[in-house]
Every structure is written in structure tokens, then in C-alpha cells.
Amino acid sequence: MELDKIFAANRFGMAFERMRLEAAANNVATANQPLGPDGGGPLRVSASAGGSRFAELARVSVQRDADAVRVVHDPGNPAADAAGDVRLPRLELADEMSTLVSAGRAYEANVKALGALRDMMLRALEIGGNK
To answer: 59, 32, 18, 43: which is closest to 96 by C-alpha?
Structure first.
């Protein structure tokens, strides 16, 4: 049914934008926090096509970007290694803030689309019930 595809697209859009919001918020919150010895880095969200049907698209991954690390020499920092270097995530706060804004707006657009679809379905039921 076509409505299933519309709802699947809307669900995917909302889930993807929520993940982008959470990842960007986490990156902003931990921008100046030293990384642990196990590596790490800022979070990145990506989506990939999974099949020929849109409902199979929902392959979203959230991964740490291990290459996005900057090293700062700060021997007084308790998180410094033996050489006095501290590993911090390398990211641009302006980029993360713009991601927060764009993901928030895209999520809001998906919510409005879902509301419009709901209203259209209710109106169609009203029209069909009047015959």
C-alpha cells in the first residue's frame, strides 16, 4: 500500500534527524573533553541504501570519527599522556551548531508532514462517510 511507503519515509526521516540532533549535541557537549585511551572522536551519522524499496533504506550508522582528533600539549592536564599531550576531538562548533539547526528544522518538517497526512486521511474518511 502506498501509505505504508509514506509512513516508512516519514519514520526514517524522523529517526535520521533525531540521530543527527543527538550526535551534534553530544559533539558540542564534549568539544573540550579529553578523549580516553581507547580513542574516540566526534560522532558522525550516515545513511546508506539497503535495497530497491524505500522501506529498506533504514540503514543508519552512528560512528566515532577516529581521524578527527587534535593533540594539544598540556602537561598540567590530568588526562595528559607521558609526553604531556592531551587528545581532544577536532571539530568546528559552528558546523555542529548549524547541524543542530538544520536537523531540528528537518525533524520539524517531518512532524508537519505526518500531521498533514493524518489530516488528509481523516478528511478522506469524513468524505467517504458522507456518501
So the answer is: 43
Please provide residue 114's backbone torsions phi and psi, each rounded to the nearest 5 degrees: -65, -40
45, 42, 48, 47: which is closest to 64 by C-alpha? Answer: 42
Tens of pLDDT, residue by residue over 63-106, are 888 888 888 999 988 888 889 999 889 889 999 999 999 999 99
Using alpha carbons, list the distances in angstroms from residue 75 to 6, 36, 71, 81.
55, 16, 12, 8
d(CA 117, CA 6): 9
Q: What pairs with residue 72 in β-bridges?
A: 86
Domain that holds residue 72: 2-129
pLDDT value of position 69: 86
CA distance 63 to 26: 12
Model confidence pTM above 0.90: no
The tally of domains found in the chain comes to 1
**C-alpha–C-alpha distance, residues 24 and 100, integer Å:** 6
Whole-number Cα distances in Å, 110 to 26, 41, 56: 22, 30, 19
